[in-house]
């Protein structure tokens, strides 16, 4: 999930530009931080981190002893480090003590689900516990000249993986809040109940959303069959904003930090595109293998409500996000 920003309206005639999320090693911080650069830990903290890594995080992985742990920015839920070892290896470690005990195991499951020939590169899981996750390091490569074309093709391959129902075999997380994924035959009912209405139960949403907007969410949820055309349940990343895309070591497209489930393909596109546009080559490659229904751009703000509601549910002071929600709801109601 990304930081809240004003929601532009994209149209079929909009000019095309290529976002540049890979210009630096920075990562967009989830849920409300600006673009930030990797921090430099003080020497004492770094020495302590390396000691812990040597004795716990990398023990038994045959990677050598940890000699450096460089903090990385970008994750909302975890502290993330790039760890270098005496054998010249490099891994990424995500850790946090106060997260749900199954969060990292479910993230690992999601990464495994996304790994498919012709799809996005994803990091391999080296170790998973309740308090940390060790992944292969995708590095800091530059994107290849065909990055967005390859990304469009990879996303089409991913969305061609379908299921008989909407949902997933496990509930997982979006941010640190549960994402409910019960198998559901009706995609409209699934999105209404488990991607919109469920956030109205969260205290931060209850306290921040005006009562009229809460009623509007309920009305829009009831009108989904007339607003969203039927789509097959496809395998979704579930949190496909630019901060979760990066170049693989070969410069091709890779993805991290999933919230996987089977849902509407347009929902992935809404998260990816709502704040900007991509090269025509992305859409040409995607639609060659996975055509989009007419009017899909007009549906992006509606599908984006799920992310905005989730942001509001995580934080107690999101006036700008609440304003975005109100604007979208007024146009839909």
Automatic annotation (TrEMBL):
GO terms, molecular function: kinase activity
Name of the protein described by the UniProt record: Aminoglycoside phosphotransferase
Keywords: Transferase
Annotated PANTHER family: FRUCTOSAMINE 3 KINASE-RELATED PROTEIN, PROTEIN-RIBULOSAMINE 3-KINASE
The organism's place on the tree of life at top rank: Bacteria
Organism: Kribbella speibonae
